[in-house]
Amino acid sequence: MQANSANAKILIVEDDPEIGKLLALAIQENGMVATVAEDGHVMNALLRNNEFDLIILDVMLPGEDGLSICRRIRSEKTTPIILLTALGEEVDRIVGLEVGADDYVTKPFSPREVVARIRSLLRRASYGLVNTAVQRKLRFEGWQIDPLRRQLQ
Q1: Can you point out the beta strands (E) in the chain?
Q2: 1.10.600.10, 3.40.50.2300, 3.40.30.10, 3.40.190.10: CATH of 9-152
Q3: Is the pLDDT of residue 1 over 80?
Q4: Best CA proximity match to 30, nearest among 1, 53, 5
Q5: 12: which strand partners?
Q6: pLDDT at 133
């Protein structure tokens, strides 16, 4: 996790290539690294092999929808998630936040606003690093707990 937005790695999961390009460009122009996945399958492969500081997730994806993906990611990781969708009703925003999203942006959107929200979430996520950075792996009876990764080995 980046302590600030410089060089932060952002995963954009968006099935509309134009929106994906627009977001990636705005993110890259602001000193961050953007990777675009067009669906949940590509996203899963990227998450297996890479660590990302933040995920922007479209709700209406082909195959597995963004809400179920968000719920699944949240059960495994604390990576900040911004849901991006055309669904702008209050109930849609509430459901998105309740399944684990940290923020919710409706289409059409301002790329500058999305970048500002990314920076804000990265800043808030880095506050916890002060406390967790001092946590070391704990070892006992042949087991090892990594509190930062939430893993038992």
Answers
A1: 9-13, 33-37, 54-58, 81-85, 103-106, 138-140, 143-146, 151-152
A2: 3.40.50.2300
A3: no
A4: 5
A5: 36, 56
A6: 46
Q: How far apart are the first and last CA of the chain?
A: 21
96/94 Cα distance (integer angstroms): 5
Cα distance between residue 95 and residue 2, in whole Å: 28
What distance in Å separates the CA atoms of residue 13 and residue 55, rounded to the nearest whole number?
Answer: 7
Cα–Cα nearest to 33, from 5, 56, 14, 57? 5
Average the pLDDT over 71-97 and give the result. 91
Q: Where are the alpha helices (DSSP H) in 30-110?
A: 40-49, 66-76, 90-98
The rounded percent of the chain whose pLDDT value lies above 90 is 65
pLDDT above 90: residue 136 = no
Q: What is the pLDDT of residues 11-58, one digit of tens each?
A: 999 999 999 999 999 999 999 999 999 999 999 999 999 999 999 999
HSE-CB for 87 with a 13 A CA cutoff: 19
Tokens linked to 11 = 């995963």
Quote the tokens at residue 58.
């479209």
